[in-house]
Amino acid sequence: MKVRTWAALLAVVVLAVGGAAWRESWRVWPPAPEVDAHVSDAALPVIDRYLEAGRAVVWPSSMPARMRPRWFCAEEPIEIVQRGAQVRVSLEAACNDYARDGGRLLTHAGTRLPLLVTLDRNGSALVVREVAEPVDGAGFRPSLERMFSARGLAEFDRRQRLSEGVNDPDAEAARAFGLPPSTRAQQYDVQ
Q1: Counting Cβ atoms within 10 Å, is residue 89 exposed (0-12), middle (13-18) or buried (19+)?
Q2: What tens digit of pLDDT does each residue of 99-124 get?
Q3: CB atoms < 10 A from the CB of 75, how many?
Q4: Alpha-carbon dihedral angle through residues 169, 171, 175, 178, given to the nearest 10 degrees
Q5: Bridge partners of 120?
Q6: How far apart are the C-alpha atoms of 110 and 23, rounded to whole Å?
Q7: Angle formed by the axes of helices 150-161 and 140-147, to 10°?
Q8: For a pLDDT cut of 90, what percent of the chain falls above it?
Q9: Would you say 21 and 15 are in contact if contact means Cβ atoms under 8 Å apart?
C-alpha cells in the first residue's frame, strides 16, 4: 500500500476512536461533585423527615384512611455546598405512599424527582428552609439548570443514563409497618 492510503486509513481509525471516546466521555467528565459524608449524614435525616411530613413533594394519600397510609421517602445526594450557615443539598428523592394490608405492603402513588434543598444551621441543628422542585414539561431542563451547578447537573444526567437513581423506600416502609425489610410493595387496587 502507498503511504497516502496508510495515512488515510490511520486518519479514519483516529477519528473513529476519538469519536467513540467523545461519545463516552460523559461517564467520567466532568468529575462527580464532592459530597461531604459528615454533612450528608446530618442533613439527609432532616430532609427525609421534612419530606415525609408532607411539607413538600407529597400529597394526601388516596388509600382509605382505615389503612393508615404513610409516605416514605429515600434520598440520594448529588452535591452539597456549604456557604456560611447555609447548606444547599442537590439530591434525587423517591417518595411513595404505603399501607399494610395483612402481610402485604401496598403502595398507590409516588414521585421521583431531583430537588434542591436549602438548610440553615440553627445552632448545631440543621433546619429545612426551602425545597425547590423543577418545573414540569418543557420547563424541566431550564429549571434544573437554574437549581443545580453544572457539575451537579452532569452527575444527575450521568446517574439517569446509567439507571443509578435512588431506590424506592420499600424496605423503610416495610420495617415501619412491622414487615420484613425484604417485603416488596404491591400496587394498591382501588375498588
Answers
A1: buried
A2: 999 999 999 999 999 999 999 987 77
A3: 22
A4: 110
A5: 86, 127
A6: 34
A7: 130
A8: 59
A9: no
Residue 149: partners with Cβ closer than 8 Å, 6 or more residues away? 33, 79, 81, 90
Question: Is the pLDDT confidence value at 31 over 80?
Answer: no
Rounded CA separation 138/121 (Å): 35
**CA–CA gap between residue 64 and residue 170 (Å, rounded):** 19
C-beta separation of 148 from 115 below 8 A:
no
Q: Give the integer Cα–Cα distance in Å for 50 and 54.
A: 7
Least confident of 1-5, 37-41, 90-94, 145-149: 1-5
Give mean pLDDT, residues 19-44. 74
Q: Give the type of residue at 90.
A: S
Question: What is the C-alpha separation between 102 and 9, in angstroms, rounded?
Answer: 69
**CB-CB neighbours of 57 under 10 Å:** 17
Task: Tell me the C-alpha distance between 77 and 32, whole Å.
Answer: 11
**Vertex 86: Cα angle to 143 and 35 (nearest 5):** 75
Q: Which three cell numbers stand for residue 95?
A: 417518595
